[in-house]
Amino acid sequence: MKLTNTAITGDFFKKYYSLIINELMPYQWDVLNDKTDAAEKSHAIENIKIAAGASKGEFSGMLFQDSDFAKWLEALGYCLQKGDLQNFRAKADEIINYIAQAQEADGYFNTYFQLTAPERKFTNLHEAHELYCAGHLIEAAAAYYEATKNEQVLSIAQKLADLICSRFGEEPGQIRGYAGHQEIELALIKLYELTNNENYLKTACFFLDERGAEPNFFIEEAKKRGGFSEWSKRTERYPSDFTYNQAHKRVREQFEAKGHAVRAVYMYTAMAEAARLTNDATLLNACEKLFDNITQKQMYITGGIGQTNHGEAFTYDYDLPNDINYSETCASIGLIFFAHSMLKMNKNSKYADTIELALYNTVLSSVQTDGKRYFYVNPMEAVPENNQNPARAHVKAVRQKWHVCACCPPNLARLLASLEKYIYMWDDNILYINQYISSVANFESDSGHFKVEMQSGFPNSGEVSVCVKSFAGEAVALRIPAWCKNYTFTMSGNAIKPEIKDGYAYVKIPDIKGNFDASTDTFDILRVNFIMEPEFIYANTAVRADAGKTCVKRGPLVYCLEETDNIHNLHNLSVNTKSDLILKPGNIGGFDFYAITADGFAESASDKGELYTSNEPIREDMKLNFVPYFLWGNRQRGEMICWVRR
Amino acid sequence: MKLTNTAITGDFFKKYYSLIINELMPYQWDVLNDKTDAAEKSHAIENIKIAAGASKGEFSGMLFQDSDFAKWLEALGYCLQKGDLQNFRAKADEIINYIAQAQEADGYFNTYFQLTAPERKFTNLHEAHELYCAGHLIEAAAAYYEATKNEQVLSIAQKLADLICSRFGEEPGQIRGYAGHQEIELALIKLYELTNNENYLKTACFFLDERGAEPNFFIEEAKKRGGFSEWSKRTERYPSDFTYNQAHKRVREQFEAKGHAVRAVYMYTAMAEAARLTNDATLLNACEKLFDNITQKQMYITGGIGQTNHGEAFTYDYDLPNDINYSETCASIGLIFFAHSMLKMNKNSKYADTIELALYNTVLSSVQTDGKRYFYVNPMEAVPENNQNPARAHVKAVRQKWHVCACCPPNLARLLASLEKYIYMWDDNILYINQYISSVANFESDSGHFKVEMQSGFPNSGEVSVCVKSFAGEAVALRIPAWCKNYTFTMSGNAIKPEIKDGYAYVKIPDIKGNFDASTDTFDILRVNFIMEPEFIYANTAVRADAGKTCVKRGPLVYCLEETDNIHNLHNLSVNTKSDLILKPGNIGGFDFYAITADGFAESASDKGELYTSNEPIREDMKLNFVPYFLWGNRQRGEMICWVRR
Q: Which helix (H) or strand (E) holds A463?
């Protein structure tokens, strides 16, 4: 049984999707074509035209400028799969045609190297993002091909992948190396799944297996090119720390998440996919340990990862500073990819819980409700003047228009335009429901087909109803969210008690046979209420930054305090954790939500404002007003905190 | 009336001084002569010998390597003034002789430029520390000359200063610039005070006045040398931010402390000296505002300054993070210089209070009790694993042996070997007692002399007795420490009530006439008890990092919690600010102190250790054991915090 299509039907994510198709995608198209008023031009499409001989000029942009168009094309593919953005199809086809013209006979395509340094192709995998750009183009081609059956784009991807498979490996004459920024591994696996060409899987596994081998490839490669750096265009010292690139150990020996967070989670995703496709237990073991290390020791309560801007990296267990965090949007998106790949192998709710957490908090908070501004770094606390301290200069208190290094918004577009794939899974004759996103899905096999309809109140209410038409499986398994302490399952008004295993409630078909409506061939399978109680959450006492503090959550949503609803200097507030948490409906930027009010107090100076004094601050009772984290920063510019003193 | 000599008699500072003369100075001599097992050699004295033609080889070390010998020589001068370290005198004379040989006919001396790039002398004041090294040599010469009357060293300094006065200024042919690292200003003023040569004062004032003028000198200078950088030895972009060097504004318009903290306080000290010597009201106004800005908005409770390692710099008002602070030892020493210069002009206790605070806390804590290890960065909290986060890599949990860039230990030697000058001041016929350090001092003038003897229990007790023999002044003014709420003044057992002005108690001679003992010609002037109550201190509520926290102080001493006296994960402790603070005598490394105990509780996880949980941590009552901050880190390696949750 195979999922043939899913349509998201609920307002909440339809609104986000509309930001993607109405704002982000057209705006990014203009950026790629240098048609915006942005200070620095993208030049991404111009580079392609120059490489194709269709335009005159020089390469301009980052080493990895090609990937910007690829990410946009991939997102476009997902939109076209749903029938949207048809007006961009001819435009995309035109650029694809330029790429075909620019692609060399052996399959090579990378405008940076083709236009500026053809003699240095594949000499600096460590720094030059060559395989990274190839990977994004292959991912894009797969998505675009699935939507359009454009054979040209598939052929480009296959020729490029074939070149990579022939150039990299253990055979004599091949380069025994791997990419400085992981991405090609993922992409080759996707292309393998689309084409069934085993070479692609084999080369992806080679890249993973070779990583971290001694002597280190990045040093050997640097020696060969005399230390020449593609960034500085000068001779530099040989590299010495490979933790940043997750090449410090063999991947099977990596149990703690380290180094650049986006590189890390892209690689862990590829590891999980490879483990699944090759049934590799040691690879799976590393993936499990890495996933648990991230989510149980190095993840912010919002699903943000990467504690430091230094190398946009993980740091160490329980180090979760709120004022200097990085929590890049792309890293949380990569964490979602990783969790999704793990879930394919192991139906444990913790994977889908992590997807839910990262999605509703870090990922959604990264975009303004009008779709025009983005966070790359997602703050755990925002204080406008804070970035006068250079250690916090990367933490912005307001979303930014569009960066030169434009990774996060296109990644967000890729995710939100393909969100439907995170909802359902079919495995071993069981329909798994992982995310409670209102939708209609069709499953088909040789022996028949069925249709699922889900209505969900998420994230504001935990009421979910699931109807299945012509269901032929053994069970429907529904994730019990980790935050949910009380829930009810009913069928035609009667309570049922499904078996619970690894956080999933297995509703078996024999249990519900009596509920079959022959006239419509429909099981009115389920009404579930995952009761969403607002609650105070506490960090592990090993987390220094959150000591003495609490964070309010309700259902999947993390809450925060904003200056506009409270006071200036939010750090002077304390909340009473014995207080009732009162819900109040609200709306920000078109999004309905429940605000939460709690009792607390504010401290203020009891003297003339000396820097240090023996007079304890005065406390004044006040109501604290919390709003969902994903909606913060959409009103007046001001302070925000997630963790509040108690 | 002039202070002719002061001898510190109390055990407390004699012990520190003995570390200087028995450990630091001999060790530094070995470092300067490359006779230690340190990984990187100093080469400082070897450079001098090579420049003198007495040795063969190449320059090695930092651009400012010369200053290492100069700082040692200055400290040696102070030790020799007290009759100590006589065995180093011949050794120092020998190096001075080499310097005389190396000094060029026009007075130039800088081994880096003489040996590596004579053609680039005075072409890169911004980066190359040329005037900084000159300044330290001049300061050293003054101190060494005062101790030894070695005319050769004074002549070296004068020739060098004369060269600088002739090369820099507003006249045609002179360089209209100033140093990237301030120091020469201070030094020229010292040399002026020693020699009465007005040129030195004039050039010092020129450097101050010119600073921050438009167009910016550092850009103009960089243009002239085509952007060549003395550090990278390459062409670099022209510099653009001059806040780091305090050249972003004219000095008279600088009211907020900004940029590199050591550069800043060295410059402010020179500004204060210049304001005093030239009676310059606008310069004084800037100094007053800068002093208040530092001490009322940007200073840690320990007297540490420089909130960030990025540029070792100030950040902004009330930004006082405890985990990423810099608080370099040299910066607090410079703050003491600045406060001392301000005190010369204005007898307001706040200046001497700041000296006391910085001295007893940041400065003393920087050295291990055995004198063998040093902090450059003085932590406000120490967690051994914390520096795995790159933002905190500069914060070490244990003192270090000796750095290649060896600024702090020699600076500490300079300060502690000349500490007696911070105790007394004679001004307008009044004897000021600024620091309560047991000592004997002699004052002389044409019309007579007198002698002061002070016994002080500081920092452990506030009991002070002051005897003066043959006093001929109008009053003795004693600083009332800012931390002191209750104090008693008695004379021969009778309470007296001196007039208080600007934090000083003015004990006038007519008031105490009856206490004259004719047989010894001695006034048993005073017994004072500055009652030292342990107390909880609170930061201004604008200080985000200290919200909800308290710090224990007693008298001049800041207290802290160490892991060894408490628990692991000190952040899980809270103190009850209504609790009694109980004193208990202790001794660490030979230093007696009072430990302080308070009631509080420790939190621990109430569940299986999830990263986030709805179970509030469990509280367990416990006694919290505080020790003085200056003694921390002298026992087992472990955590330390100054600010504790309340």
A: strand A463-469
Tell me which H or E stretch contains A507: strand A504-508
What backbone torsions phi and psi does residue A493 show, to the nearest 5 degrees?
A: 85, -5
Determine whether the interchain pair A323/B321 forms a contact, defined as Cβ–Cβ distance below 8 Å: yes
CA B48 to CA B94: how far, in whole Å?
A: 11
Could you give the CA distance from residue A190 to residue A178 in angstroms, rounded to a whole number?
18
CA atoms of B149 and B154, how far apart (whole Å): 8
| Overall size of chain B counted in residues | 646
Sign of CA dihedral B67, B73, B77, B83: positive
- Given the candidates 2.60.420, 2.60.120, 2.60.40, 3.30.70, the CATH classification of the domain at A424-482+487-530 is 2.60.420
- The position carrying tokens 């297995």 is A506
Residues of B in contact with A291 (CB under 8 A): none
B541 contact residues in A (CB cutoff 8 A): 569, 572, 603-605, 617
Concerning whether A616 is annotated as a catalytic residue, the answer is no
Q: Two tokens at A356?
A: 């839910």
Measured in angstroms, the CA of B297 and the nearest CA of chain A are apart by: 6
Indicate the residue of B538, B544, B603 with minimum beta-carbon distance to A541.
B603
CB of A327 closer than 8 Å to CB of A406: no
- CA distances to A45, A477, A524, A529, A591 from A493, rounded to whole Å, are 58, 19, 10, 12, 31
On chain B, the residues whose CB falls within 8 A of the CB of A380 are: none
B-chain CB neighbours of A388 within 8 Å are 315-316, 319
What pLDDT score does B588 carry?
97
- The structure tokens listed for A614 are 């023996």
Please tell me which residue in A79, A205, A407, A408 is annotated as part of the active site.
A407
What DSSP string describes B443-511?
A: EEETTEEEEEEEEE-TTT--EEEEEEES--SSEEEEE--TT-S-EEEEETTEEE--EEETTEEEEEGGG
Q: Catalytic: A104? A: no
Distance from CA of A144 to the nearest CA of B (A): 40
pLDDT at position A524 is: 64
Measure in Å the smallest separation between the Cα of A583 and chain B Cα atoms. Answer: 18
Position A217, amino acid: F
The ranges assigned to domains in chain A are 2-422, 424-482+487-530, 535-645
Query: Measured between CB atoms, which of A308, A551, A613 is closest to B391?
Result: A308
- Distance CA(B412)–CA(B410), nearest Å, equals 5
**Can you say whether the dihedral through the CA atoms of B100, B101, B105, B110 is positive or negative?**
negative
Architecture of domain B2-422: Alpha/alpha barrel (1.50)
The tens digit of pLDDT for each residue in B470-527 reads 777 889 999 999 999 999 999 877 888 999 999 999 998 766 665 666 666 666 668 9
Chains A, B: CB pairs < 8 Å: 148
Beta-bridge partner residues of A374: A367, A400
The DSSP secondary structure of B546-578, one letter per residue, reads GTTEEEEEETTEEEEEEGGGS-SSGGGEEE-TT
SS3 state at B229:
coil
pTM for this model (two decimals) = 0.93
> Inter-chain contact B315–A389, Cβ cutoff 8 Å?
yes
Q: What are phi and psi of A251, to 5 degrees?
A: -65, -30
Tokens of A186: 């993922």
B299 three-state secondary structure:
coil
Residue-wise pLDDT for B425-445, tens only, equals 999 999 999 999 999 999 988
Q: Are B321 and A391 a contacting pair at CB < 8 A?
A: yes
B61 neighbors B42 (Cβ within 8 angstroms):
yes
| Whether the Cβ atoms of residue B319 and residue B283 lie closer than 8 Å to each other | no
Helix (H) or strand (E) holding B28: helix B25-32
Q: Quick one: angle between helices B130-148 and B66-81, nearest 10? A: 20
Q: Which helix (H) or strand (E) segment is B415 a member of?
A: helix B408-416
Residue whose pair of structure tokens reads 């609200």 in the numeric block: A586
